[in-house]
Amino acid sequence: MSVNTFGRLFRFTTWGESHGPAIGAVVDGCPPGLAIDESVIQPFLDARKPGQNKFTTQRKEPDQVRILSGVFEAPDGVQRTTGTPISLMIENVDQRSKDYSDVARAYRPGHADYAYDAKYGFRDYRGGGRSSARETASRVAAGAVARLVIPEVTIVAYVSEIGGDMIDPANFDVHEIGNNPFFCPDAAAAKRWEQIVDDARKAGSSVGAVVECYATGVPAGWGAPLYGKLDADLASAMMGINAVKGVEIGDGFGAARLSGEENADPMRPCANGPDGAPEFTANHAGGIAGGIATGQPVTCRVAFKPTSSILTPQPTVTRPNEKGEREATELFTKGRHDPCVGIRGVPVVEAMMALVLADHKLLHRGQCG
Amino acid sequence: MSVNTFGRLFRFTTWGESHGPAIGAVVDGCPPGLAIDESVIQPFLDARKPGQNKFTTQRKEPDQVRILSGVFEAPDGVQRTTGTPISLMIENVDQRSKDYSDVARAYRPGHADYAYDAKYGFRDYRGGGRSSARETASRVAAGAVARLVIPEVTIVAYVSEIGGDMIDPANFDVHEIGNNPFFCPDAAAAKRWEQIVDDARKAGSSVGAVVECYATGVPAGWGAPLYGKLDADLASAMMGINAVKGVEIGDGFGAARLSGEENADPMRPCANGPDGAPEFTANHAGGIAGGIATGQPVTCRVAFKPTSSILTPQPTVTRPNEKGEREATELFTKGRHDPCVGIRGVPVVEAMMALVLADHKLLHRGQCG
Amino acid sequence: MSVNTFGRLFRFTTWGESHGPAIGAVVDGCPPGLAIDESVIQPFLDARKPGQNKFTTQRKEPDQVRILSGVFEAPDGVQRTTGTPISLMIENVDQRSKDYSDVARAYRPGHADYAYDAKYGFRDYRGGGRSSARETASRVAAGAVARLVIPEVTIVAYVSEIGGDMIDPANFDVHEIGNNPFFCPDAAAAKRWEQIVDDARKAGSSVGAVVECYATGVPAGWGAPLYGKLDADLASAMMGINAVKGVEIGDGFGAARLSGEENADPMRPCANGPDGAPEFTANHAGGIAGGIATGQPVTCRVAFKPTSSILTPQPTVTRPNEKGEREATELFTKGRHDPCVGIRGVPVVEAMMALVLADHKLLHRGQCG
Amino acid sequence: MSVNTFGRLFRFTTWGESHGPAIGAVVDGCPPGLAIDESVIQPFLDARKPGQNKFTTQRKEPDQVRILSGVFEAPDGVQRTTGTPISLMIENVDQRSKDYSDVARAYRPGHADYAYDAKYGFRDYRGGGRSSARETASRVAAGAVARLVIPEVTIVAYVSEIGGDMIDPANFDVHEIGNNPFFCPDAAAAKRWEQIVDDARKAGSSVGAVVECYATGVPAGWGAPLYGKLDADLASAMMGINAVKGVEIGDGFGAARLSGEENADPMRPCANGPDGAPEFTANHAGGIAGGIATGQPVTCRVAFKPTSSILTPQPTVTRPNEKGEREATELFTKGRHDPCVGIRGVPVVEAMMALVLADHKLLHRGQCG
Question: Which amino acid positions bind NADP(+), per UniProt (chains A, B, C, D) (predicted)?
């Protein structure tokens, strides 16, 4: 089985392998009339782009997106979405010629190599093929389109923890996020992380990270009981990102340690609320109750494991030979890698948040508009 | 929008409100020929049933399931699934007549009351209506059918933490799980939890919990890149359970604090493995890589918030009057409630694990069988 | 595989066998706030109900529908849809005890008996089980809910041809449809059909029919390129009705014999059109172009084969014995049957039209509202 | 709404406009291990290609397909599908620069111009944009992949009627289909059609056609009750092709004129049948009963309307001006057009048959394998 489409009304389908000629996404279900051209999408790809500093992989990819369909000059002279599928393509440029015989022959521990072989019988082993984090560029491109659908929403993601070192909430400054290579909202933490990530890089090792994301402006009512819950869709969206192993909404696992009184999100009337909406005096729930948005900020936390590609050789096994026998061997990742894959996960988490919210906006409009 | 169906090939659709005449599920896509009658499903409902001890809600529901379709006596004289939809119905019996005027008038904080009103304009307020945890009985019934599809898999769930008090892994005894009212595999912890939960109950308060679940026997290859990942589907399934706020696969957030070396899951040849499958010497990944099962136990952790229904009055607001104005008020939950909703979440977590795995078994067979 | 759900946003799932305890449908995705109770649904079931005259099967089924969920008294005191799944149940009453040993042992030609056995290995043979036209009662019930979603649309279906004898368009009178047991808009034809159908009934034979359906009030814009076309969805909906073998939109096969000039649907400005919509001076297209409604009446024609249950014995084969061998035998249908199944197809065709249009209204609102 | 994906397990998503840079399809869910390269797909595109003789449009498109993902050299040295999405791209080459101001300003009668405008507010008017039959090239490419999934099935389509002139079944010769520009199995009819089509072409007019298609080798059991019926899926697939207005399975509308005895498909034991399958002595049902294949040839007939693009001016209206007013005008199609669009529909009908059958093979394997 292969399921490369996400979403219900606002859907995207991605395709492409790390070392094939190109990767891409087809965005279907986008409403018509939204002003769009490549320049609307490119900045988000640039934020995710590798090779921008020593803290990320040195693979150099321009990641130039092309829009191949679904847009046209509207009567007002502006290029807009037409309501038909938007085909986005990003050519793979830096496919460094390389000897792949070792990864062809054995499985990289911590990677999907063995699982793909077990499922499909063989795999495109070059750079991880379809399981490469390179695929997330397609998500970021699709997410940029999704943002056009939800202009009322502001999405912010950042790294809150690297290698176990957390930001200090007291230092949180949203403007700081773009000022350092870690998408870190705490300047002091960013300073510390330089050391942590550089140490990992020099040691050929890697570190994990936690990415946090919030969306403001989500109206109460988006979401859907019971198997289209906004939080369940977010959990699916985030857990599906490469290297993610945990997702929390609101207080997450912390809520399991609170009492009912501590965890309550009391309400009070609000003179200035939109349409007479009440005001909440706490947001343990992360802006979602019963799978439906409450009008508070939607918040989630996402755990990224350390990059599996490391320079230390790991015990592993070979593909079976003709007799079905495997041999013990060792493998390590040569060449370019990300010492902390969670960092470049920030634009991806934002994209997935946008994609889920755009879909739920349309779903809500469809049935309760 | 309303999405009450889960799954791709093995699908179930649930219906029903807490205080309506009945609740139920329609299971579609179940393969034919599986031996089934009510006695196969009932034990799982009994395990979830309320009112069995003082640690859960005193609502008394027999939760007797009826199979209304999709089964027939096979040529071998055994009643079996026919491959057509299996309609399961559970009548609501203990709909104690009660005064609902306060919850009709105002929103219970921490509940979905306000969100439903914001979405749909009004709601069935009796006992939470559709957002009641009562709906999980339908999932448990559907999950019992799913188990028939995956006889090769063993699923075990248990509570690992209540009110912040964790089990000691050294005390883990799978046989202990059924010996106490907490589904606790650590006898000593179960003893301590009696006090914790009883204290909460007496105080009209509530506590959160963490449920862990593992599935053994899942063959390498089940799962699907990239938007039908086994871990993403599990995250969606678990996050969609009432009161759940966090989901981890394998080491989850803990993985974010490991180095690449610590987090590696090395492999070695295994003489006795099925079909020459290799052996892993660690399972940080929780049995899933690239969204595909590796053949190791599939593991997840699920965080349940404390029950929102507590006796302490909470500030809240009324529904808008004719002029659209809301008033400040206070609300508390009268009557029967669960001091720790996570406990009764254990059979639900098991059911969702079974439902996801049954679906992925069929998907895998469909395309890679 | 078993796919018992239809629709994208407005979805229904049916369950139940001809001779099981009940049949039913779960309608999901219905917008909230629509006034509903059983009396809204029952008249449509009554129109489809068997045993009302000698021209249909003598099975007596009261076909009383019960609403088990998804409705609640709204603040205005009216029972309304809540936006949650609406569970509809119809108990099977007239399950006459009967000897089924012959249909258990061999396949009725023209029925789905052999196909079900080939697919599932065995089948509920009583009255056709799941493949019985009895299932269409669930569709009619669901269709009655769908009608609430599209009050702007008027749907009319009627029989235009029985046993090759056609109505005269010049005699078409919409008020006549309810005046005869054939849903025939031509009183003279209805008179002739009495003889045709009665002859078939007495001879233990059966005749085919053509049902025509049109929907007025469908706004231009409903529908969706390219694999959610309104005409493709109608074709699927109609072809999926028991005994249907052909579907036409607009001029259908007749269009294949026209020239481009003859088949054109010219337009002209219309002073009174809604929102300045133009007026068409022909409707060969049946109200759909490029899969999207044009604002003209949506028209289709549906061919029903003659009932396969006839009294004349037909050559057939037995189920394989233990050695896998089949024997030649003959089978005929004892007891009650419909001499012209197309007649009772009229309410079903209307229901499917309503279900498709309700879905497309919500889809359109979701993405182009 | 926009739905550009077809299928359940074997799915394809198409994108692209007639005069954009390219069109394409993403095929998802294709099983791994199938030998594939461009040369496997190209012949089917060549059969559909325009500009090959005077009986089709003179637009010259090389229609060269490129495979951008989802394939890799397997261990046996052969390029094979990997189980990941297969991205197929066809560049648009012959986008003759042309004055589109008239179609930008008014609607071509019989085309989707007005419907698209009504739905989306504006449209890519160049050559019909997304509604152009050019999109069917993507279907043909995807269909070529689908054929690899069902090597046991042979699919044959042909034109059986043009402008009301039918083939003589007595002259049917399958080898003749490739010998004339009409995919006509009757040499004498092909001769006659030269005149009919050429007359239409010279007159700037157009004629309709009927395409018939059969698939042999479809095993009994493929298909699915009740809303995934094989015949309903075929009806949807065929009705969704540009210009199609009618679909029949088996005897279709003809069955409505038969008696139950005439329409019966009797069975008898068959010594040489696969797995002891019985033999049918008639096939009025077109190989499908209850939505499930019976093992007989699956047959369908598809009605194509005459090409809407004709040289005779047709009354129509303009897009509304700033005041929302429309003007009466006339429009005719300048330049290249197909005098009989049904001819080039043959490879498309075959492709859709293959796509539906591939999907149902995987569905069947998934749940009843």
Answer: 48, 54
CA dihedral of D359, D365, D366, D369, whole degrees rounded to 10: 160
> CA B217 to CA B200: how far, in whole Å?
38
Using an 8 Å CB-CB cutoff, list chain B residues near A317. Answer: 267-269, 278
Q: Closest partner residue to D15 among A3, A5, A85, by Cβ?
A: A85
Element (H, E) at B263: helix B260-263
| Min Cα separation C368/chain A (Å) | 6
CB pairs under 8 A between A and D: 157
Q: How far is C31 from chain A (nearest CA, A)?
A: 5
- A151-165, A252-266, B45-59: least confident range: B45-59
CA angle A16, A21, A27 (to 5 degrees): 40
CB-based contact A123 D22, cutoff 8 Å:
no
Residues of C with CB below 8 A from D309's CB? 260
Q: Which two tokens stand for residue D88?
A: 């197929």
Cβ <8 Å between A20 and D69 = yes
Interface check B90 vs A, CB under 8 A: no
pLDDT tens column, C234-243: 999 999 999 9
In angstroms, the CA B152 to CA B218 distance is 7
> What residues contact D169, with CB distance under 8 A and at least 6 apart?
none
| Burial of B119: CB neighbours in 10 Å, binned 0-12, 13-18, 19+ | buried
Whether chain C has a CB inside 8 Å of the CB on D210: the answer is: yes
Say if D1 is an interface residue toward chain A (CB within 8 Å). yes
Query: Does D271 score more than 80 pLDDT?
Result: no
Give A206-237 pLDDT, tens digit per residue. Answer: 999 999 999 999 999 999 999 999 999 999 99
CB contact under 8 A, B369 and D368: no
Whole-angstrom Cα Rg for chain B: 22
Question: What mean pLDDT do residues A133-153 have?
Answer: 97
pLDDT above 70: percentage of residues in chain A: 98
Q: How far apart are the first and last CA of chain A?
A: 35
Beta-carbon separation of D369 and B368 below 8 A:
no
Q: What is the predicted pLDDT for the residue at A52?
A: 78
Outline where B22-85 has alpha helix (H).
38-48
Q: In this structure, what DSSP letter does residue C129 have?
A: G
Q: Which chains, if any, share at least 3 CB pairs under 8 A with chain A? A: B, C, D
Instruction: Compute the Cα dihedral for D163, D166, D171, D176 and give only its sign.
Output: positive
**With a cut of 0.95, is the ipTM above it?**
yes
Residue with tokens 């998408």, as numbered in its chain:
A183
| pLDDT average, residue stretch B204-216 | 97
In chain B, residues with a C-beta closer than 8 Å to the C-beta of A256 are 161, 164, 208-210, 245-246, 303-306, 342
Task: Report the gap between the CA of C363 and the closest CA in chain D (Å).
Answer: 5
Touching partners of D (3+ C-beta pairs < 8 Å): A, B, C
Q: pTM of the entire structure?
A: 0.97
Measure the CA–CA gap between B315 and B311, rounded to whole angstroms: 13
Q: Where are the beta strands (DSSP E) in chain C?
A: 5-6, 11-16, 22-28, 65-67, 71-73, 79-81, 86-91, 154-162, 165-166, 209-216, 244-249, 267-268, 279-280, 288-289, 292-293, 298-304, 314-317, 328-331
Tell me what pLDDT residue D94 has: 73
Rounded (5°) CA angle D155-D159-D160: 110
Please indicate if any CB of chain C lies within 8 Å of the CB of A1. no
Whether C31 contacts chain A with CB within 8 A = yes
CB contact burial A119-148 (16+ within 10 A = b; e otherwise): bbbbbbbbbbbbbbbbbbbbbbbbbbbbbb
Kindly determine whether residue A110 and residue B265, on different chains, have CB atoms separated by under 8 Å.
Answer: yes
pLDDT at residue D95 in the model: 66
Tell me the average pLDDT across B186-209: 96
